[in-house]
Amino acid sequence: xxxxxxxxxxxxxxxxxxxxxxxxxxxxxxxxxxxxxxxxxxxxxxxxxxxxxxxxxxxxxxxxxxxxxxxxxxxxxxxxxxxxxxxxxxxxxxxxxxxxxxxxxxxxxxxxxxxxxxxxxxxxxxxxxxxxxxxxxxxxxxxxxxxxxxxxxxxxxxxxxx
Length: 162
What we know:
The protein is mostly helical. 74% of the residues lie in helices and 0% in strands.
């Protein structure tokens, strides 16, 4: 996993915002995955996907002059596959990670706990980075968050009044 993190840092060299984003998403995904009791293989897929989930942004910005989720879902899977193959990942892992990368901005028909946690971890970071207000966070909680741990972290970060 550390080799992948370092490879992603090289991929986004000089882009501290993108690097910080995937590091934070990975951290939340890892924490939620452990707390929710995921098996080792599912955690490995989740954590791998968390590191590479936005790999399509760089290509999308170059190709379409946009970082929209739609373009990320198109351009991300081939870039993720290429990187993961170069690092010796098994085809089965690459296939699921590519699927997650290609769907992580699609919030309907979430199929699998790895997908659910990836979406939750990405939202935990995006809420802060995008400066979302309290009402938006409450709405996201109701519509998107399903795991007990994800909801607890969301509440602790954004919905607990201090």
